[in-house]
Q: What sequence folds into this?
């Protein structure tokens, strides 16, 4: 089995260290960036949609970094199913806060229905079309150093080997990707379907909690600095970061969401485009940076694994929550209705996900596959008409069928993974 990851040297047991000034400085910078948005919200001032967009958007980005650092460092103290549940919810809070606001608002104002799932489809395609290839390409470039040193075979510069534990995530993602086509077929996300997806997320957490722990993962960057603190100080720091970040996000999500819509007209840009792509860039940035850091340290399998898990969260927890938020906001249709544009976006997103599953189903991510995903992701910004989007979706599906045929031996083991008895060896 080929793997671009490299064993890390055994670390000597050393007494906990204090977090350096540079680490505290980064936290302080995030707080300073977020502070104007909190002041705006408390004072009720909104001088200009564009200004509010940058102020509240900056706050969401800053809070996202605080959450990412704290959530990763928390793995030092929390283990098992509780850790999985808490970290999964925390990591997606910025994105969910914005998307659920639109869904909730659409319950009383139909004009917001077009934005309800826009953030989800944009972040989902951004994660697979840009995030996955980024991690793969960085990992393969890092592997070249080890190949030149004779530590790895030359083939590791062409393919990234995924960890065996990823088969569970891929199995869930495959099932969710197929089920996702029911959404455009029905033209809505029914309330009952939302509860089905939430049940799937709960099942995913339960199954993930049963996967044997391969050992303590190495924490890098800010998370490593926080984890190196004495236990009591570390826990108080993590709790403090969670509280501050959550407060910033909850106070900034509504102004950010409203500013995205209002700024479209002021800037001469389609508001839907801003909601679909600018918001995900803000909320996904910390996750991309953390994954890239793992890839730079030769931990490419773990890096891509975290991004695959994020896809599972989006297709289950996020999509499942949208119709519930819509109904709680006053919607009376029994779910979240989708217009023609939303249906088109869901088909494109689901078909891209199917292609992504086909590429990684054999637990190998080839360099050419990463480049193909980036190219197809870029095409959607050129092909903007409805007919072109349907053709692009068909291309995704046809390529997926071809790749699945090549990797057909891995299909059944992957689809069985979510249902395999806990503790049973992976195929």
A:
């Amino acid at each position: 089995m080929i793997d671009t990851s490299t064993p890390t040297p055994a670390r000597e047991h050393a007494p906990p260290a204090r977090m350096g000034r540079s680490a505290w400085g980064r936290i302080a910078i995030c707080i300073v960036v977020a502070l104007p948005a909190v002041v705006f919200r408390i004072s009720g001032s909104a001088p200009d949609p564009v200004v509010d967009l940058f102020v509240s958007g900056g706050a969401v980005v800053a809070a996202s970094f605080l959450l990412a650092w704290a959530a990763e460092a928390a793995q030092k103290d929390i283990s098992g199913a509780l850790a999985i549940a808490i970290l999964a919810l925390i990591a997606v809070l910025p994105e969910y806060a914005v998307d659920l606001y639109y869904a909730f608002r659409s319950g009383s104002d139909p004009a917001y229905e077009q934005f309800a799932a826009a953030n989800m489809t944009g972040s989902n395609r951004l994660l697979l079309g840009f995030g996955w290839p980024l991690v793969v390409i960085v990992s393969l470039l890092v592997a070249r150093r080890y190949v030149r040193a004779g530590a790895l075979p030359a083939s590791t510069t062409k393919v990234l080997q995924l960890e065996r534990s990823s088969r569970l995530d891929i199995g869930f993602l495959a099932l969710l990707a197929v089920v996702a086509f029911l959404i455009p077929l029905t033209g809505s996300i029914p309330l009952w379907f939302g509860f089905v997806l939430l049940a799937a997320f709960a099942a995913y957490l339960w199954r993930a909690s049963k996967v044997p722990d391969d050992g303590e993962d190495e924490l890098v960057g800010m998370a490593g600095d926080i984890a190196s603190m004495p236990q009591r100080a570390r826990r108080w720091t993590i709790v403090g970061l969670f509280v501050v970040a959550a407060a910033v996000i909850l106070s900034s999500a509504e102004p950010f969401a409203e500013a995205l819509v209002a700024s479209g007209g002021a800037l001469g840009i389609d508001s839907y485009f801003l909601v679909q792509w600018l918001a995900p860039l803000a909320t996904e940035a910390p996750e991309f940076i953390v994954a890239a850091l793992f890839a730079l340290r030769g931990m490419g399998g773990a890096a891509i694994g975290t991004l695959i898990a994020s896809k599972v969260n989006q297709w289950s927890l996020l999509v499942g929550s949208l119709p519930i938020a819509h109904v709680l906001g006053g919607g009376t249709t029994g779910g979240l209705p989708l217009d023609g544009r939303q249906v088109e976006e869901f088909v494109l997103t689901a078909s891209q996900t199917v292609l992504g599953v086909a590429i990684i189903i054999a637990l190998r991510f080839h360099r050419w596959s990463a480049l193909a995903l980036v190219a197809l992701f870029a095409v959607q910004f050129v092909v903007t008409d409805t007919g072109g989007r349907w053709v692009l979706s068909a291309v995704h599906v046809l390529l997926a069928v071809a790749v699945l045929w090549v990797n057909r031996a891995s299909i059944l083991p992957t689809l069985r993974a979510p249902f395999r008895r806990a503790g049973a060896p992976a195929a």
DSSP finds 17 helices and four strands in the chain. The radius of gyration is 21 Å. Residues 1-15 have pLDDT under 50 and may be disordered.
